[in-house]
Amino acid sequence: MEKLIIGTRGSALALAQTELVIRQIKEKAPEVECEICIITTKGDKILDKPLVEFGGKGVFVTEIEEKLKRGEIDLAVHSAKDMPMELAEGLAIIGVLKREDPRDVLVTMDWESFLQKEHPVIGTSSLRRQVQIQQEFPGALCQTLRGNVNTRLKKLEEGMYDGILLAAAGLRRLGLEREKRFHYHMLDIDGMIPAGGQGIIAVEGRADSRFLGLLESITHENTKIELKLERKALSLLEAGCHEPIGVFTRLEEAAMSRMVSIWMCGEMDGQLKRKMTKVSLEQAETALKELAENFRR
Q: Is 208 in the active site?
């Protein structure tokens, strides 16, 4: 029996996402034995500071990539939105699962009470989320919030915040969207453009991995295209955790062609810009470049 060692962070969400990958692998290759290797990253160790203060996206990936390069693990499972634009040499995204709900969610204990507050305190460490939520709630005060999903919900319950911003995908994968004690206010894409890759599970491996064929067999092609375009947009915008950048693409099957809807947002010179366009798949990369150039003017 062939053994496949999969690296992941140790949070409940990271493990749930890894189990989703394993389930799909076993459906295609039941003879493969999958072993999970939990890896603690810099981002898991430092919880008292915003990511922008100590590194950005790479803080959730670097230690895992090192084990991949050394051959200590065969694959790594990531939330695609946590992955830096430049992967370590010799590594690549070799598998992409179907996208879950890409939206952000404003979670409160009592929605009516939240709406009555003139200056509600909202927990989020994301600059992207901060600049967009303050347009919908101009009096909101955003304060740093770190930790795994359950830790963040606990802080909400304890009254440290009036509301917190989370990704819908994480709540769904943990089965928390059914929790009756919370109110979930789903934020439309137009008003809260997600982070690039949000809702997508990406599997990273060595570019010459013997499991390339297996991972290709579980890859959702439309999601793979969406992720490629979003990462291209982030690269064009030179975006990391240090800038409030959002980008989202949706591939749609038209009558005789494939169309891509593209949303972008970013704060430039103190002004939040939002752009949306719809083009054919063949025109998508050109449209991304034009949108990026428009943002930088």
A: no
Q: Which positions ≥6 away from 193 have C-beta within 8 Å? A: 128, 132, 246, 247, 248, 263, 264, 265, 274
Q: Which residue has the higher pLDDT, 195 or 42?
A: 195
CB atoms inside a 10 Å sphere around CB 27: 10
pLDDT at site 237: 87
* Torsion sign over Cα 68, 63, 164, 133: negative
Q: Catalytic: which of 82, 101, 104, 162? A: 82
Q: What is the pLDDT of residue 56?
A: 61
Cα–Cα distance for residue pair 14/67, rounded to 1 Å: 17
149 phi and psi, to 5 degrees?
Answer: -60, -45
Say whether 203 sits in a helix, a strand or coil: strand
Average pLDDT, rounded, for the chain:
91
